Amino acid sequence: MKRDISGNIVICCLSLIVLFGSLVSASVSLQSSLSLPSNGLINYGPQVEITINSDKIIGANNLSLGFMLDWKWSALSWCDSPIQRELTQNAGFKLVRLFSHRIEPCTYWNESTKTGTFNWTDVNAIIQRIFEIGAEPLICLGFYYKGTPLIPLGMAIDSKTNLPYPESFGAYATEWVKHFKTLGWSVRYYEIMNEPYFYFGWNSSDTTKLANYVAFWNTVARSMRQMDPNIFISHDSSTIKWVFDYWLQHGDDIDFLDFHKYDAQTVGQFTDMEMFDRAERIYFETSCWNYGVKEARQRWLNARGKSLPIINSESNFNSAWINGTDPKIQQMAGAVWTALVLRTEILKGVSYNVYYSFFSSASWELANRPSGGLGFGMVNSDNNRPWYPYYVQMMLANNLGTGDLVVETNSSSDDLRSIAWIHNGTLNILLICKVEQPRTLYLQGVTGQLEFSKIDSTISFLTPRIQEGTFIATQPLIMNGYTVTLLQVS
After folding, report:
1. DSSP code of residue 45
2. What is the CA angle 13-14-18, rounded to 5?
3. Which of 289, 328, 343, 377 lies at 20 to 30 Å from 92 by C-alpha?
4. In the sheet where 359-360 sits, what is the strand order?
5. Distance CA 34, CA 473 (A)
6. pTM (2 decimals)?
7. With helix as H, strand as E and coil as C, how does 169-194 read?
8. DSSP letter at 164?
């Protein structure tokens, strides 16, 4: 029987052509992500020079990274999930912020005796898990929401101030300190009331409510410190100008400067470039309403004789949530913003950055807020897959330690930001591309073979991963739009 094989030959040839084309495409893609072809005929955007002067030390790093566990289900889910705890441990987080009312141990408070009934089971489990991953907790005691404080059942509110009675809330807060002290656990960081500016406002013309809060804070803090003088207490409005100035006149010592940083309040409020600019300025530089972190630290030192640590205790790209969060939070724009914030905090001497929050449910967000966004998380709790901002923090935290020497770097273009430091004998260079177009980068002051870890939008933000490899310092490095890259050389 005669077989006609001409069609098979044609199909085979076409398959080879497609395969060859795919191999060429893959080769060009790989090459374009690392270095230019030797003939230099392909244009990968403007050239940028990054100069590393590893002999010139410009400072020492204070920054460690942390995250927020909001909602009781969030804290308990993380507590019960080995995968989620492993993700946090692998990323090297050192601080975990919690709201007291989300994990409330006080089942009933007796206002007349200023004592309560407590069940510490959930609290103990969560705090123990935090210690196990090599981190420590920051507990925010109290929350002011929609015109009223969230307090334990049975606790009364003073009708004159619309706050809990200071002695009563002080006794309640002291029970937390006493409990951990009894267990021998070093729980050091506390805040008294989350975002108290929702109580006393932003208007400095009337200080009545601010005076109420300062008196309340003083009483509560004194009671807590009497139980354990080694704890650190503050509030997250401490760098707001009129609050800071009033506090120096009427408030007890705070133990750290504390602020929250969200650079937009509505989706689409600012362009990407405006957000990147705000990442490096807002709260870090002095404005008409806020002291920059360095000026606040210096003013406190001048007035009280103490140089305070600085904690950014809640931070994310955008605070919008009612109709859906900003989709850019988990995309490369959010990753670039995160990297720029962390770079600035290293340079400004910030001690902790707390990312809000560790995870969110993409399916829940899309079902309940269909107008957009996947929540505030850096990890998708539906499948425990990290999004881009997680990998930014993982690259940084695992290769950055307190006291690491920061060395001088310079960029020939505002399109690329850089920072370099020495960690355990390794030179680390963080590069951040702020534009969506390609840039060709040349390194000066570095020789030999470097390892790189990077994230960019060549891989979907729904299933991102760190891309790794090596290249020679004399070769150019291609940034394919928004990119965060860590280079390392011994």
Report:
1. S
2. 120
3. 328
4. 359-360, 379-380, 385-386
5. 11
6. 0.91
7. HHHHHHHHHHHHHHHCCCCCEEEEEE
8. E
The Cα 326–Cα 319 span in angstroms is: 8
From residue 213, how far is each of 231, 235, 259, 299, 459 by CA, in Å? 20, 11, 17, 22, 48
211/247 Cα distance (integer angstroms): 9
Report the half-sphere exposure of 141 (CA within 13 A, side-chain side).
25
- For residue 337, count other CB atoms closer than 10 A to its CB: 29
56/11 Cα distance (integer angstroms):
63
Scan for tokens 């370099």, then name that residue.
420
H helices of 353-417, where?
362-368, 388-397
Contact 120, 80 (CB under 8 A): no
Q: How far from 22 is each of 29, 38, 89, 456, CA to CA, in Å?
A: 10, 21, 39, 21
Q: How many residues does the chain have?
A: 490
Task: For residues 355 and 352, give the distance between their C-alpha atoms in angstroms, rounded to a whole number.
Answer: 10
Report all structural domains of the chain as residue ranges with CATH numbers, in order of start.
Answer: 35-58+407-489 (2.60.40.1180), 62-402 (3.20.20.80)
Tell me what pLDDT residue 202 has: 85
Residue 6 structure tokens:
């001409």
Rounded Cα gap, residues 54 and 44, in angstroms: 28
- Residues contacting residue 287 through CB under 8 Å, at least 6 positions apart: none
d(CA 65, CA 354): 6
Nearest-angstrom CA–CA distance, 391 and 395: 6
Q: Give the Cα separation of 210 and 240 in Å (integer).
A: 12
> Which value, in Å, is the radius of gyration of the alpha carbons in the chain?
26
Report pLDDT for 146.
85
Listed residue (433, 411, 451) closest to 332, CA to CA: 433
Answer positive or negative: Cα dihedral of 379, 384, 386, 390: positive
Runs of H (alpha helix) within 377-420? 388-397
Q: Is 275 helix (H, G, I), strand (E, B) or coil?
A: helix
Write down the residue that tokens 């790189």 correspond to: 452
pLDDT at residue 293 greater than cutoff 80: yes
Distance CA 278, CA 283 (A): 9
Q: In what order do the strands lie in the sheet with 449-456?
A: 467-472, 449-456, 483-489, 426-433, 416-423, 405-411, 47-60, 439-444, 477-479
Segment 110-158, tens digit of pLDDT: 999 999 999 999 999 999 999 999 999 999 999 998 889 999 999 999 9
Cis bond leading into 238, ω under 30°? Answer: no
Measured between its terminal Cα atoms, the distance across the chain in Å is: 69
For residue 193, the one-letter residue type is M
